[in-house]
Every structure is written in structure tokens, then in C-alpha cells.
Amino acid sequence: MDFLYTYETLKLEFPLVGPERARFVILGVPFDGTTSFKAGARFGPTLIRHATLNLESYVLDYDVDIAELPIADIGDVAVVAGDPRRTADRVRETIEELKRINPDALPVLLGGEHSQTLGAVEALKPASYVVFDAHLDLRESYEDNPYNHACVARRISELGVKEAMFGIRSGTREEVSYAQEKGIPWVHARDYSFDAFIELVKPLPEPVYLSVDIDVFDLSLVPSTGTPEAGGLGFWDVIKALEWLAENKKIAGFDIMEVAGENLGNPTSLTAAKLLFYFIGMMGV
Ligand SMILES: [Mn+2]
């Protein structure tokens, strides 16, 4: 793991195992080099880890205590300042190395800009990509950089990975045309329902990489994120969808991206930490 910082503080509160024995392996990506509106996603991993201190490790809904599950936290990738492609290469290499030492490990990325999801997808080579996001992220290029956060779903679709998107409420005419041309289905936040979700994800090939851009939630839940948008999904909408995937599809990897801000305990980090514990809990049932 050559590219990792090792933060000595702000780890999860309960005992963890090494990455070679873990089922869930947490990796932070503190990168915000192409953020276009609100900076601070570089603090996302630290904010989420800190916010977990507020949570019970016992997840009521599933009767699972995630403190009893084999979880590793391998720290943060050392980012290449301002370079989303080279940073994503480090994400990819770190996950490739992790899978070499532990093929059963499920990588869980905490970010950091959504641009970094590309590195995880390149490492894990899933058949499908299910994303919860306010934005289509299907631009060919943005601010002269094809690896900008606004292009990540486009780059992933070019890898031949099947995609489905939920909670969308922002995009350009060109992005909508690209989705139509490539047959990439997406559900607008105002039209979102569990039934609409099932209809699109049921036929997707496995394994599935699952990405939650935290801005999919209504901005009342997540005010500190790179590109906040009103009119988003509720917490339980997303949890219910993830539960279906956890039960019905093989999951290759998971991420929670675009958590930002500079104040420990901010609402965005609390939403993200709760989502993280629910995800581990439902996968650990
Ligand atoms: Mn987004």
C-alpha cells in the first residue's frame, strides 16, 4: 500500500482487523482538485470517520452489531494535488493491491470528489454501475479536463459498464442526449420510486459497483457538498434501494462521495456516516 497516508486519529471507534482478513475495507480519498462550486471534499473522509463516533455500532433494523464484523480502515490515498487522473490511478492501484492480498475484500471508498470513483471501477471491473446522484456526470469534458468530477459516469460508460442512475435533477442537453444515445437509464428525483428503481436494476448484470454521491439527498440533509441541489431524495429512499441490491445482487464495491465542509459533525458527514453503518450492517446480515 505505497500510496497511503496513515492518519493516526479519527479511526472508527471499535477494534478493526487488518485488510488481509477484512470483509469490508475502508479507503479514504481526500481529493477535491476539480471542485467547481464548494470546496472541502478533501476533508470528506476525515469528516465521515469522525461522524461515526456519534453512532451506535448496533444497527437496529438488522439486529447487526457492525463492531463484530471484520472491518479494516487502510487510511487515505495520498492524492496528487489538482490531478484527478493520477489520483484515480492511485485509487486503482491501491484497490488492485488490496484484492491481491484479499480477493474477498469489499472496498468501501469515502470521498472526496466523485472523479475518484473511476479508479475503483477500473480496479474492480464490475459489469454494472448503479449510482445515486443529483447530476448525470456524463460530460465529455469539463473545464478542459475529461477526468473532472462532472465526467465520471461518461468515463465509466466508455469502459462498457452498464449504468443506471437515480435521483437525478441536473444535467445538460448534451448529457441527456448522450444517455439516450447509449441507452443509459436514469430516474429524475421527482419521479423516483422504489418500483422505478427495481425495474431498472433487476436486469443489470453482476457484479454491481454501487456509488452514492451524497448530493443525491435533499440538500437539507447534505448542505456541505461540492455542488448542492435542492429537491433530492430522502434517507430511507436510498436505504431501501441499497437493501434490495444487498439482498439480490453481488456487490463489487461501494462508495460515498462528495462529502465536504470544514466543521466536524456537520450534517452532511452525519448523513454519510449513518449511510456507511447501514450499508455495512445490511451487507453483514
Ligand atoms: Mn453529483
From TrEMBL:
Its cofactor is Mn(2+). GO terms for molecular function: agmatinase activity; metal ion binding. GO terms for biological process: putrescine biosynthetic process from arginine, via agmatine. Coiled coil: none annotated. Binds 2 manganese ions per subunit. The keyword Manganese applies. Mn(2+) binds at residues 114, 133, 135, 137, 213, 215. SUPFAM superfamilies: Arginase/deacetylase. Keywords: Hydrolase, Manganese, Metal-binding. Signal peptide: none annotated. It comes from the Archaea. Belongs to the arginase family. Agmatinase subfamily. This is Agmatinase. The lineage of its organism: Archaea, Methanobacteriati, Methanobacteriota, Thermococci, Thermococcales.
